[in-house]
Amino acid sequence: MKGTKRPGAMTFFRQWLKNPLRTAALLPSSAELAAAMIAAMPDGVRRVIELGGGTGAITAALLDAGIDADDLLVLELNEELHAHLRARFPRVRAVLGDARSLERLADEAGYLAGGRADAIVSGLGLLSMPPPLQQEILEAALACLRDDGVLVQFTYGPIAPVADAVAEALGLTVERGDFVLRNVPPATVYVYRHAGAPGQ
User: Distance between CA 63 and CA 158 in Å, rounded?
Assistant: First the structure.
């Protein structure tokens, strides 16, 4: 059916062919996975950072859910996918760069002038990364997140995407969210919070 085609699917697939280790999936996130990511965020979330925007499946869902373009920052490492995001969402701050540099990039884009994010949603392939790299990325993300904010991460693997030692070192607790079968491949949502933050 034409109506089920995901925007940017061929762009995404080309990037997977070029670098399957960096682009963890064959297809963009499904509408069901995007909905599960948004459902995992607490009520009242206004400012959001998205890590690994891809072709914009989750970006579009965030905007549809009422997140204002001015309150959204999307980070993408791949140049072609970044250009796709800029063209598809001209009002959104779509930033090209490495997640380890998130704090600097968000500041340079003017995002942090409005305060830190209430939530960070991530499609990065953390599970396939070594723990030191996970920790670098999460330290940069937490620097841009309110102390009572949440980090919502999806993963394709059978275990939590952040190594236990990394979560402990950063003082994070984890809650397993929805399992989304209607995604290629199926994915599970996890929610990370600072220990002692509301919701614990």
Answer: 30
Under 8 Å CB-to-CB from 192, ≥6 apart: which residues? 150, 151, 152, 153, 162, 167, 172, 173, 174
Q: What would you report as the CA-atom Rg of the chain, rounded to the nearest whole angstrom? A: 15
- Return the bridge partners of 192, or none: 151, 174
Cβ–Cβ < 8 Å for 149, 119: yes
Q: How many CA atoms lie within 13 A of 134 on its CB side?
A: 20
Q: How far apart are CA 144 and CA 142, in angstroms?
A: 5
For residue 178 the two structure tokens come to 């929805």
State the number of CA atoms in the 13 A half-sphere of 82 facing the CB.
13
For residue 53, give Cα distances in angstroms to 1, 84, 97, 99, 123. Answer: 25, 10, 11, 11, 7
pTM of the model: 0.86
* Per-residue pLDDT tens listing for the chain (200 residues): 333 345 555 554 454 445 544 444 446 789 999 999 999 999 999 999 999 999 999 999 999 999 999 999 999 999 999 999 999 999 999 999 999 999 999 999 999 999 999 999 999 999 999 999 999 999 999 999 999 999 999 999 889 999 999 999 999 999 999 999 999 889 999 999 999 776 65
Do 94 and 105 form a contact (C-beta atoms < 8 A)? no
